[in-house]
Amino acid sequence: MKHLVLLLSLIAPATLVLAEQLNETTLTDKLNGTELTYTYSGGWKFSIKYSADGVSYTMHNYNTPWSKKYPYQAIEVSKGVYFTSWFDLGRNDYVTQLINLNTKRLYGSVLLAKEKIHFEQAIINELKQN
């Protein structure tokens, strides 16, 4: 029993520190000044710009004009890997993306107009960073 108490007293502080780290969500603005052009596996091609004013995008398949800027959030998961999200008020779409600048891969999930789910991977064709 003494050994169990000793073991628990050694493990408990480390467990609390890990739990605190996992509960932290630190947002980043490191994507500001970044522009990506990417193509989803289904053929849809987009360009997206990140700035301090928000995120905007265009869809190449229909030559859409750039969207207005929407506030976005980003977490740097690891060096060069970002998890992002924003809500497109104009289309009523909720977008999340996992962007890996190291491997030039993007994984996107979009709840389209609260009715349909888009869930696809993409290749980043162009990457510009200021």
Automatic annotation (TrEMBL):
Gene3D superfamilies for the chain: 2.40.128.20
InterPro entries: Calycin, MoaF_N
Molybdenum cofactor biosynthesis protein F N-terminal domain residues: 27-106
Protein name per the record: Molybdenum cofactor biosynthesis protein F N-terminal domain-containing protein
Organism: hydrothermal vent metagenome
